Here is the input.
Amino acid sequence: MIRLSVLVCFAALLSAQPAVEQGTFPSAWITGGPNCMEVPDWQIHEYNPNLYILRESGCTHYEKPFLYLLFGSEKALLIDTGAGASDAAAVTRKLIANWLAREKRERIPLLVVHTHAHGDHTAGDRGFAGEPGTTVVPATVEAESAAFGIAKWPESIGALDLGGRVVDVIPIPGHQAAHVAYYDRPTGILHTGDHLYPGRLYVTDFEAYLASTRRLVEFTATRPVAHVVGCHIEQSDTPFVDYPIGTRYQPHEHPLALSRGNLLELQAALEAMHGKPERVYLRDFTIWPRVTHGQ
Here is the structure.
């Protein structure tokens, strides 16, 4: 009877969770080679009709960052703008034009935001400057707090309403002071930037990074999480083995998507350090402290 009651309660909990929009990832990503003459500058993947994943080629920049373009009924949202000589603006304009043609619409405003302020996430900003109908939110605590309605940094949660699509914004400093995560309610995808992804998780402020990880764990405890995605892949598909810094061609890389289980694993590993940061190699990522205290 007790076991039956537990199963009934578990089933009730699952049924209470809202359904999420489904989507797909490609079987493999184009990384950057082996022949750069044959590799496009960007790989575009339609996760579903209103969410697109853009990956900059390693032939353009070794960081090979991922960008995310989301469409609501009233606004489009681009998360990050790429690295190096990024022409993300031109690529985004073409994608939006195709989406508008499919939807038989004339225009939609674009909001450009960032996960954080590092150059491999903001290099393409210049291409959006002065674009009609486009707003770029600088990657600063002050600008993000104002744009996303974050009342108290970093404890408060902000939000963006794209029209029938709400994206929650969670401050997560620790890798960089103005770092935020985006939770897309319709798809249940948590965008964690450089905080959690299959690769080297660079920690510059350990106390803030641990607090941010706990904040993400608490936030996701009551929400469906279909996937956790970051902005890079550095891990190979061999457990505990990553590609060296500067690698452009990664023919056997780890999948992009992680899970909430990985988030819990990250929290547990950080807490096990008891305030003394150290490098820890885990199956799908490596915790890589850069300093012991402070930013």
